[in-house]
Amino acid sequence: MKIIIIGSVAAGTSVAAKARRNREDVEIVIYEKDKDISYSGCGLPYYIGQDYITRDNLTPRNPDWFKKRFNLDIKTKHEVVAVDHKNKKIEILNIETGDKFSDNYDKLIFATGASPVLPPIQNIENDFIFTLRNVSHADKLYKFIETEKPDKAVIVGAGYIGLELAENLIERGIDVSIMELSKLPMSNLDEDVSVHIRKELEQNNIRFIGGEKLTAIEQKDNQKFVLLESGERIETDFVVLATGVKPVSELAKSIGVKTANNNAIIVDKYLQTNLNDVYAVGDCAMAFSSIDSSPMWVPLGSTANKMGRVCGDHITGGKLSFQGILGTGIFKVCDLAVATTGLTERQVQRSGIEYIVHHNFKPNQTEYFNTSSEMMIKMIAEKSSGKILGAQIVGKNGVDKRIDVIATAISFGATVEQLFHLDLAYAPPFSTTKDPVHYSGMVLNNAKNNDNPIITPQEVLDNPGKYIIIDVRSNSQYNEGHIPNAINIPLAEIRNRANEISKNKELVVHCNKGVSGNAAQNVLLNLGFERVYNLSGGYKNYKLISEI
Amino acid sequence: MKIIIIGSVAAGTSVAAKARRNREDVEIVIYEKDKDISYSGCGLPYYIGQDYITRDNLTPRNPDWFKKRFNLDIKTKHEVVAVDHKNKKIEILNIETGDKFSDNYDKLIFATGASPVLPPIQNIENDFIFTLRNVSHADKLYKFIETEKPDKAVIVGAGYIGLELAENLIERGIDVSIMELSKLPMSNLDEDVSVHIRKELEQNNIRFIGGEKLTAIEQKDNQKFVLLESGERIETDFVVLATGVKPVSELAKSIGVKTANNNAIIVDKYLQTNLNDVYAVGDCAMAFSSIDSSPMWVPLGSTANKMGRVCGDHITGGKLSFQGILGTGIFKVCDLAVATTGLTERQVQRSGIEYIVHHNFKPNQTEYFNTSSEMMIKMIAEKSSGKILGAQIVGKNGVDKRIDVIATAISFGATVEQLFHLDLAYAPPFSTTKDPVHYSGMVLNNAKNNDNPIITPQEVLDNPGKYIIIDVRSNSQYNEGHIPNAINIPLAEIRNRANEISKNKELVVHCNKGVSGNAAQNVLLNLGFERVYNLSGGYKNYKLISEI
Q1: Which residues in chain A are closer than 8 Å to B369, comparing Cβ atoms?
Q2: Residues facing B218 on adjacent strands
Q3: I need a surface site. Which of A431, B3, B185, B347 has the fewest CB within 10 A?
Q4: pLDDT at residue B292 in the model
Q5: Mind telling me how many Å the CA of B311 is from chain A's nearest CA?
């Protein structure tokens, strides 16, 4: 049996390695049009920013390594230009020599990845305009920075790569502006989460320009400008286009492989396309939700690796199947880690599921440690069952741990009540006696049972005058800033002053982050008030969200 | 209803807080014989070692805070000396005044904690001999270090507290020896895990004395000595006894409350004892395994908090119940984090379950980051079902994340195959494209299916001559050190030189950590060799274990 794989980054090499692990008696050839293989695409921004990361770090393995270990042939600078699936033949262009030749296969695997989506503007091919998708792109940008020593950059697009690059450019001492069509960075996250990212950018002197469209990039004499729809002209030394990626599937389509609306190749759980013996893995393939099996396209190295392993196993007779994804992702921008798993509130709203949501501000570890810092977990659960639907977390330390625990819990259909009971590891350097994840579970479970209903700041903002708002913080905190028309009754006085509060209206109580608000809510509920909501994330969260 | 709680550290205050959250109309009184309440027992070693941790950090809340927030009375320096359960009365000694008085209850909660187990030696009450269980103990030790400026310490007992304190004493510039009855530190862990702790101690110039018994502590003129059974006399400036703790349950026993062999109070899932209206929570109470419901006593703040909350809920009409524990724990000693969850290999061996085990050496994050470091995950699963039974992890960074993910997975009955499919968060600063947890799942799943059987170094050490051992590392690595009688065939040569290997004997292949060994195993299996084991954790693991 002969296996031909097109593309040799994460997914393609995973297919090859797993196929060889299973069988010695198959022939495996990979064609790669680029010169680099098996590189860490996610590492490119760090290569730009960190002195100690070398180019060799990015591409630790060459074709010779794969030959020795896995007895397989990787031909770089070889582009597969045509496929004749009827006869199971492909035509290959040797990019260096210009020669063409053909090869045959029993199994054909598309691991063609994704390519940058470029904005529809003129003069985009220019020596000061960059993208950052492969090692060649990184080489070009790296060389530019080393030789031209630019002072300022404009990044177009505030997704993963744009934000990671922003951090790494300021590490190089470059002044960065980052623009984005959406009002806030990371438009796939909820706005009450991505507002934290905007704040982090501002705190690091990165200018964020939201809700703006790029109309042109100009060069006049020695000056370069980015032009915005608003009319603003931003002078810059270079521009990086990080406006997203799209699946590379043209060749697959040319032989009748079916793709989704976004051009991702449709595959089954063994990564097989609609054509026999034709497979697709990695960023060019469509994944699916492990919760409800709906199609999902989240092009990440972790998914590419899993797909590759499953496909390599399947084509050599193994039993593995792809189990789908939760859309889990994480990135770091300056000191902020941002992570997501499962559904966002926006996605849940679209699905029509009745849900509960909570913003939980908690330290990652015992607070007297000087490495302790606060994170915010936004968690969403189904109201009827308490099943966790998704979570988004922002914070300095320990974000990756909590998102992975929650992702694991979601994978097993956990409820918010079950979260509280998890026996997680506690010691002061690592967590708090009740972990932030436990708190999210506790609060949402109390909300699920209607014992302690929660209200979001957005709900309060959207309905001015609907609720009596009781601010249970101290007088001095209240005087520094408060929700319009809020009444100040500090928590310690709430039992004695409850008679001041009208029983005819719905109440919203709040403190600074939510814990004292919850205590006040309990007092009022136990004193016979019937409709008392605790404000999710307290005044801190309200203030942030009111500034969106 | 009147609730009386005896003890006001983690569990007792949790009961009170939850009871008040549920109901305003109950009276709550806590009696605490100590002067400090609601303190972080786990933080005591860090208070000793870290300049920035103040005494106030340890005891952030006083009775007044609880009164204001929860309307409950905490009476410190008040010891409950007798209980008349028939009449639901208690007698209390005011330690400061010597007065006695009585009080009555509807519900009585024992949150009496645990106390140090002291070794049976003479002169143990001495001004240079310390324990470290409560804030008063910490005060005494702290003051001694500040005023006497000691140079050297002997810690007796290498459990959590002993090891954490060792780290914090060397932070203070004190020379530390730590002795332990067992051969290795942390005797509740498997030896192939705790050998890493011994290594860490040695690397930090902490002398570890294993398999030794303390026979006496002597003071002669101005010199102090610790005497060992071996005859050795160690001169020291002070001694800390960290030889474990035992449940405090004498008062409970006096009214007929049933206890287990270790004196822990036996409770049901609502934390109720065998007596009506009498409960026990925290370190004085017995917990149970959430896997098989067998009794477990693992006195930790995280469990105490959960028990307290459940008990407080139950006595005020709530529906919560305690779901048991996995025995999850973590601690840090110098640069090493050590964590465990579920069963150890020793426990599994005792249970008679047929199991598979693997030692997985992997970096916590993408290796080209200068914060990347290696961890070792020892994972154990049931052979028949693939269900994860337990894991122990040692490493510098990211250990807490992996143990929590595994603890969560175990809670939901996960199999090793399911581990591989988890959609965990990947970005270079946080993990590797396949997370260490994925690798453990993959390798154990291959072992479960008998596709890639694993053998432990111990098995090889215990059966010299039984296996043909093939070392697939480079010649130079082999020459630097190898397993006795191992044959060196570097991986790249294994396909061509397979004919040199006898097919009549069981083979063990290995590389340095296991990955290339697995590749070689696959080649040999695919070439028709039938009994080929990969050495768990490779030569690195073998070498460590051979030195136990």
Answers
A1: 46, 50, 53
A2: B225
A3: B347
A4: 86
A5: 14
